[in-house]
Amino acid sequence: MQRAESGPAERIRRRRRLVGIGVAVLVLVLLGVVVAVAVTLSLRGNTRTFKETFVARCEDFNGTDCEKIWGLFEEAYVGRDPCKVPVAAYGPLIAAAPFPPKCNQRIFWSKTKAVVHDFTKKRKCFETVEDTLLGSVLDGQTWCGKEGSNETFATGCPGWTDCETSAVRSFWNGASAAFADAACGDVTVMLNGAVATPFYNKSVFATIEVPRFRSPKVRSLKVVLVTQENSLTSCENESLKDLQRKLDGGITYSCKAVPEAQINDCSSHPEKPCGSCW
Question: Which of 19, 138, 151, 209 is the 20 to 30 Å CA partner of 177?
Answer without folding.
Answer: 151
